[in-house]
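Lecture notes, unit on protein representations.

Consider one protein chain, 299 amino acids long.
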Amino acid sequence: MTTAPISHTVPPHLDGIRVDLAVAELFETSRARAKTLAEEGRVKIDGKRVRKGVRVEAGQVLALDEPPPPADFEALADPDAPLVVVHEDDACVIVDKPAGQPSHPLRPDEKGTVANALVARFPSMRGVGFAPREPGLVHRLDNDTSGLLLAAKNAGAFDTLVEALRAGRVDKRYLALCAGEVRAPRTIASPIAHHDARKMRVADASEKGARAARTEVLTSRAIAGGSLVEVRAHHARRHQVRVHLASVGHPLFGDALYGGPSIEGLSRHALHASKLAFAGPGGDVDVSSALPPDLARLV
């Protein structure tokens, strides 16, 4: 009996990563196991077998001949998980995520994430999205990033919103507290590549795996020890705002991964997703979110 292949569509945050690292994350297996699968030629991209050095692109279909244990899983409905809905229409939902809450579960029995809360309140989202554990989620926020997170109510809306995000038709802004005196307005347009599975870096445009990224610093205001800046992020690359600001000498407060200064009483990096505006399938959307108390006290 032949085992049917299992597949996942590569989400935007894994764009440009090595195929074995993508397998490890998407198929919930170890990096060592993922590397072995790639070396053995058991991984396919868009139906063609590939080796471990290849880098994946968002939207490609990544498939294995047979699923490594454990395979992907559906997010459990958790009506007790935090969920602050700030916008809802026929096509989408926008929630205001607190810092510390994961966007989706990493284990089949995990609860408390945004995804767990969404399927409890909007059961139709189950089966919509990049993977069953990410129902409806059009993009992610890092666990320690607070603010606005977009989810689609149905498959058609999901496809439309993902395309709009990739094409730069979503006005996606952040408020960041960072070191030094930041000049504004300015644009940071350095390409971004994976340093490893955990960290990103700026890269040369000719480098394999480097992806275009553009961050506009719209405004800047001096605060104690640094600046409060509003930025608009294009392309939705992983860690884009954090990497770009650090690359020009202005790492975020509390962002140890990218060399940011520690701040007494702040237990996370100082980044808040503050605005989402776009012409959506359910109508025009323009939603803003103010800084939460742990960041507001610093300005």
